[in-house]
Amino acid sequence: MIKSILIATLLLISLNAFSMILAYVDFPPYSWQENGRAKGVQIQIVNSIFKNAHIELELIYLPFKRAYQDVKEGKIDGLFNFYQTSERLRWFDYSASFIKNPLVIFKKNNRQIDINNLQDLKVGVMRGYTYGNDFDNASTFTRYIIDSHESAFLLLKKNRIDVYPCDYRVGKWHIEKLALQKEIDSISQPLKIMDGHIGFTKGVHQKNIQKINTAIMNMIKSGEIETIIKTALNHHDNQPRSK
């Protein structure tokens, strides 16, 4: 009897060690939900990472703020796409970076904006997001807190905000969806190239993170991640590069 209980306990521990629950958020064309199914290039990449790491994966769709809090509290194991900051390092562990996200400034077509001088401008920022430490700590412009990319571009159209920093591909996706190509464009020089990670509950998943990082490094080296990105995002791949 005791032997049977011990075997069952070890089996449960083994299963828990090789299965994880991650949240993904509304971040098209990288991730979104359509008819109850996870879609997007990051969904493909993360599924491949976990397959190569031999870890069972369950994906759930959550608003970013809820996903952030649930991972922080250990209710679920992780979330993506997740950027690294000194503040977040207190609460989260990170995978190796598996994607580069070019952060650019979107503006009205007829506006001349100096990317190095946003002083006195009304800048739309997504609630809970980070744009890099320098931008997050800047005090020379007015922040207008926004809860969705779509609302940000509509506010930009109506001149309620002057600029909106956003991932290049995400911005282009929403501009096309809203048919705003003739009204809104982006500054070609990136504000910052952000490293995309998977974020995990602090201090809980070190062994799995090691397996995941090995899978990421092997997939980068083999070109597998780059192939997934190019295949999935060919339409959006004329992206700006850092100088």
Highest CATH level, the class of the largest domain: Alpha Beta
Q: Name the CATH homologous superfamily of the largest domain.
A: Periplasmic binding protein-like II
> How many structural domains does the protein architecture include?
2
Give the overall shape, derived from the CA principal axes: globular
CATH structural architecture of the largest domain: 3-Layer(aba) Sandwich
Look up the CATH topology of the largest domain. D-Maltodextrin-Binding Protein, domain 2
Binned, the helix content reads: 25-40%
Order of helices and strands: HEEEHEHEEEEHEHEHEEHH
| Distinct helical segment count | 8
The biggest beta sheet is recorded as: 8 strands, mixed
Extract low-pLDDT stretches.
6-16
Percent of residues in β-strands: 25-35%
Mean pLDDT: 90
Structural key phrases:
2 domains, 12 strands, 243 residues, two-stranded antiparallel sheet, alpha/beta, 36% helix, 8-stranded mixed sheet, 8 helices
What does this structure look like?
With 243 residues, the chain is of the alpha/beta class. The chain folds into two domains: 2-98 and 196-236, 3-Layer(aba) Sandwich (D-Maltodextrin-Binding Protein, domain 2); 100-192, Periplasmic binding protein-like II (D-Maltodextrin-Binding Protein, domain 2, 3-Layer(aba) Sandwich). 36% of the residues lie in helices and 26% in strands. The chain has helices at 2-17, 41-53, 64-72, 133-137, 149-157, 168-177, 206-222, 224-232; strands at 19-24, 32-34, 37-39, 56-61, 78-82, 92-94, 99-108, 122-126, 142-146, 164-167, 184-186, 192-201. The N and C termini lie far apart (67 Å). Residues 6-16 have low confidence and may be disordered.
